[in-house]
Amino acid sequence: MTKINILCVIGFFLTMTSFAKADDQGAMQAISKADQLMLMQNYADAEQQYQSAMKMAESALSRAYAHYKLGTIYNDRNNRTLAKKHWNAGVAALRAEGQENSSLHFHLQEAIKDVSAGQ
Question: For the chain, what percent of residues have pLDDT higher than 70?
Fold first, then answer.
């Protein structure tokens, strides 16, 4: 994944946080903490935070973002199967709520294409 893609997704997440539902704040806090852990290259703890966020998430965007980041972690660990599973789950979450036009959906689809081409 390129730095530009990472910045786009982080920008998307920052935009998303301003529109998050009040009942999704727990997930948003876990995601924020996980993103900080990723920047510090603490991937094991970030993985746990994304897992927690995914379970708490009330919105498809929060759930899909957590899946996207988990897929990224697994892809970096060369676990392409688990990465693709999470990216597909993120796509499914967005589709279930009619959010196929979101930038996150685009990045999930691109990640799936990239990992499929590399297998």
Answer: 80
Residue 23 has pLDDT above 70, yes or no: no
Residues in the chain: 119
Query: What's domain 3-118's superfamily in CATH?
Result: Tetratricopeptide repeat domain (1.25.40.10)
d(CA 112, CA 30): 24
- How far, in whole angstroms, is CA 33 from its chain's centroid? 13
Closest to 74 (Cα-Cα) out of 114, 31, 104, 43 = 43
In 3D space, the residue among 34, 102, 105 whose CA is nearest the CA of residue 70 turns out to be: 34
Collect contacts of 95-103 with beta carbons under 8 A, ≥24 apart.
Answer: 96/60, 97/59, 97/60, 99/60, 99/61, 99/64, 102/12, 102/61, 103/8, 103/9, 103/12
Task: Note the pLDDT tens digit of each residue in 68-89.
Answer: 999 999 999 999 999 999 999 9
Q: Mark 99-115 as b/e (b = at least 16 C-beta within 10 Å).
A: beebebbebbbebbeeb
